[in-house]
Predict the 3D structure of the following.
Amino acid sequence: MFANVLEYKANACEAITFKLSMTIYFHGLVRTVFDVTLADSFKPEMTHQIFGPKEIIFGYKNLSVNILCLAGSLETFVDTEYASKISTKLAKGTEPHDILESLTKSYEFELIKTRADFESKVIQEIHFKPFGTVRNKYTSDNGSKSFSIYYIEPGMEDFEEFKVLHKRMQSFLPFFVDGASFIDSDDSQWCYYTLYESYFSEMDVPCFAFVGFMTVYKFYAYPESIRPRISQVLILPPFQKQGHGTQFVQTFYNDFVPVSKVLDIA
């Protein structure tokens, strides 16, 4: 039976799966090295900013691209599997998609190179702590789930280390926000809110899992005022429609409304 070239074309939104990994299995996300293949997962809403307007990955039969992220630090491993790669004859000179090369449009940081390295880092996630200061704490599901919003800006302790984490956070944007663009974290007018779910490991150690983030830009207003503006808000799909966006905005208002040099906010 002759091979069909269509068998080697995959819809990128269907082929790609995101999974978050931490130290225990909790809330349907993978948080233990043993549950990497068992976790609830989520799909990208769009991939045209990575793989072009047709959102097609060419050259692989039965393609599966699992993007595994450590839930706290968001260190990432891209695990690609497929039944076969298209032959030169069938491809008629068209090269198969270089998947990792395409993903570098989103992943402007070093990826973990092997699954073994990824699994070894899962254990280290127990030591991850969010950057910045806590601005808001709240619970959901009748108090069974706890969340914290952290704030950080240039000049605060560990901001340089946070910039590395921010690159990992904003790597989700092209998959969920149409027309998304990355911001310049060297611009001192940016400030950042990061939301985490807090929980305890099997050893009763407090741990944190990334839920989403929000960026705010402090525009100058003559003569000595500022106009803070919300720029980006992203809540990962497993946590959407649970009121987290409202908590972000309320925290932003609580922080900036009392500041005397704030002319207005939006």
